[in-house]
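Check out a protein:
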Amino acid sequence: MPQEHALAKVEFDHKCACAECKEVIPKGSTGYRCGGCQTSVHHECKRAFEKHSQECTGLQHEEKEVKQETEQETENQEKQKKKKKKKHHNDGQENEKQEEEAKQKEKEDKKEEKVKAEKEEDMSESDSDTKHEHEKGKEKESTDDNNEKEKPRKKRKQTHVGLPGEYVDYSLPPEKQINEEFAKLVKQLNLPEDAIDTLSPTMKWTFVQANSNAGGKASPKSPVAIRKPSYFTSKLQAEPTPELLNSLVVFLRTQPLSWVTEFVELKGFNLLLSILKNSTPTRKEQPRLRTDLQQPCIRAIKAAANTEQLMRVLLEAPDSVNLVTYALAGGGLDCYGKVAAVSLLTAVSQYPGQEQPDAANAVNGHQLIVSALSAEKKHFHEKRRFEFLISNLRNEQSLELKAKLVEFISQVIGLASDLDQRLSLKQEFAALGLTDLLNVR
């Protein structure tokens, strides 16, 4: 170890004892410090202390070298162990892969052997079957030839026309008879009159035969007989029930127009409106009686007013539009009932005013809707008109109901008679927050 690295010249910042002469070394004096054990001596004791410092630093240096050598040896040994482990692991994986490949080859060989055996069996069976079929075919041909000679073939007289159990003859009646019966069917089902000229006679006759049981006669396989409109009107007068009204809705939707017209002529609209009036409260806070009748009653009215003439009969009934509006605003309908009520009111708003000699008898659906909405405000003691429409649009979760409400509101605003009325209606809806609801994304 060189002498210059044995002792280091330092300036003492505190009092200490000299390691050689054991005297006090004052603060601020200069001296030397051993590089190994960090002991201090006077400037005068430097020569006497050099041997000690050299021996001390040399020993420490040797210890460090020994430690470094031992550490390197341990690291090399660990590296060798890791390499051996990796080799052993890789060898095990290779062995496992080889064993798996051998097993897969054995399985594939077995499958191929099975497939070959099955093919051989199929070939043998097919050969025997073909021989047997060939013999049978010869026998059938001989018997068919004999039958053709003895008996002529019968003509096919019937074919299926669309409904189960419905069969008609191939031969068509005269075209005049087909057109007459098809015209009657068009009127019954309220179909467009253009269909009379566009369809061919065969299509018309097929359609007539398929709907032959739609005139109020029960088919032989039908478990329930079709009831007459008088049955429903008598039951509605005696004791209306939700089941009876739901059954009426089905008949109004499925029966021909003549059945619906007969029901309306028996004052069916008046009966339904009276039931709706008795089931609608005068205030929203009052306990509702027979609210289970409101929804099927609304659906029955909507199903019955399916033509322009029947819609006119409904609008001419007293307070018809007002009662439907009260039912919508009263809160007794669920989401589906509200959709039916809003759809009915939208159809009423689109009903055009009839050009008649007497202007007092003209019916305008838009005017009836606006007056009904004004009457609803007084009926339920609301502060502003149209408030219940905006509350339903804001609070309901059904997208179908929201779409129907937006369509109805657009009809109320857009079908106004003049520009001033249109602007005033638009301002009323805007004051209730309609624009904010429509701008929400």
Notes: The first strand starts at residue 7 and ends at 11.
